[in-house]
Amino acid sequence: MVFASSISAVSAVPLAVVIATLVAAVLHASWNAIAHWIPDKVAAMTLVPLGCALCALPLIWLAAPPDSASWPYLAASSVLHVLYNGLLMLAYRFGDFSQTYPLARGTAPLVVALVAATILGETPRLAQLAGVLLISMGLAFLVFWGHRTNPIRPAAIGAAIATGLIIASYTVVDGIGIRQSHSTLGYIAWLMLLGEITVPILVFAWRGPSLLPQLRPVWHIGLLGGALSVTAYGLVLWSQTRGALASIAAMRESSIILVAVIGAVWFKEGFGRARILATVAVTAGIAVMVLA
Length: 292
Prior knowledge:
With about 290 residues, the protein is mainly alpha-helical. It has helices spanning about 15-35, 40-60, 70-95, 95-120, 125-150, 155-180, 185-205, 210-215, 220-240, 245-250, 255-265, 275-290.
């Protein structure tokens, strides 16, 4: 058995889990906006993970260590998070924020739903599946409608889809690992340290002291992005101990609506019918899953 709590049918998502996941979505959109805003993507890729790792240190001291059964999942997820950081920065380098982010995040929910159903035994109820599909359709529409008026580069599409597959992979791995850890805070802390500290170490080894002048003007905002990232994913992991992976993954991607607003207001990327229709579809999908 993959984990002891596998069930044949998924129950409704508790309200506390919905609230925690939606707060995580807001925080996630915020730190991604920070990462996109920092002009030097190498600096962003250094500072945000470094902020995550620094936030993890006091948590490791405060929290009980995760059980040994969860450490293989921690190790696998740490590698996946390193890949995620690199691919995400590539996507942001090649494409608009309001197109690459939705494509990356929108790929994940359906993949998670499929894996959770086939491997973990979390078979969603019809209403929950409809909610996942509504959210994914809204996000896909947001991307591909925008492609008509503002074509997205193939390199950005490739990087964004690859990022989405990595997101789906670590979502499933962490969903299993944290349920076996018996220490939610301990799992979060060790994951943020092991999964994030590798990136700044590699970047410093590559760029050396020449990187410091690029970090100095934006170090505070980059570290803030890391703190937001830790809080966002911590809330998601907590939610995964109390709700189905597919539902949590889908609701978390409501951050894409906020990203559409940020892209229009902050990055001047435009806002139109596509974003309105996508907002309606995502909101309806969340409502269906909450009321299911």
